[in-house]
Design goal:
This protein has 146 residues and is an all-beta fold. It has one helix and ten strands; from the N terminus they run E-E-E-E-E-H-E-E-E-E-E. The strands form two sheets. Strands 1, 2, 4, 7, 8 and 10 form a six-stranded antiparallel beta sheet that branches. A four-stranded antiparallel beta sheet has the order 3-9-5-6, with no helix packed on it.
């Protein structure tokens, strides 16, 4: 059987533009159209302002979580913990030039969706306190094997 690869659209996390603190939700919850089942193999996060070593926890859900407002404390509802299928710390910059940071992390998170949507929410994990100039500054993309 041939290896099949799916690349999601690069999707904005809709970050807030006020100063962040470690532990805040980095952007709003996001849904990505994906094959009904597969394995997330790679996460790429781009930050057009290169916010000085930002590290991010990406939490994957099999169905829609309650969601947390951008730039608010990352505090999942109890019922949402049962929806978690995996998480990954993305903390290694692949490239940071010309005020653009590209973070890439290899993962191995199998999933099965209910209707072809994979939900995720991100948490600022670093001690930095970034301030993004535009709500579209941070985007995420997944590479999936299916």
């Amino acid at each position: 059987m041939a290896l099949r690869i799916w690349e999601t659209a690069r999707t904005s996390l809709a970050v807030g533009t006020s100063i962040y603190a470690a532990g805040d939700a980095l952007g709003t919850k996001v849904s990505l159209a994906v094959p009904d089942a597969g394995v997330v193999r790679s996460i790429t996060i781009t930050d057009v302002d290169d916010e000085a070593g930002t590290t991010v926890n990406v939490v994957f859900f099999d169905s829609e979580p309650t969601g947390i407002a951008a730039n608010a404390a990352f505090d999942l509802a109890d019922s949402d913990t049962e929806k978690i299928i995996g998480f990954r710390l993305v903390d290694q910059p692949f490239d940071a030039t010309n005020a653009l940071a590209l973070y890439e992390s290899d993962v191995n998170i199998p999933y099965r969706t209910n209707g072809g949507l994979l939900w995720l929410q991100c948490e600022l994990a670093s001690a930095t306190t970034p301030t993004f100039t535009a709500t579209t500054d941070v985007k995420i993309k997944l590479i999936i094997e299916y």
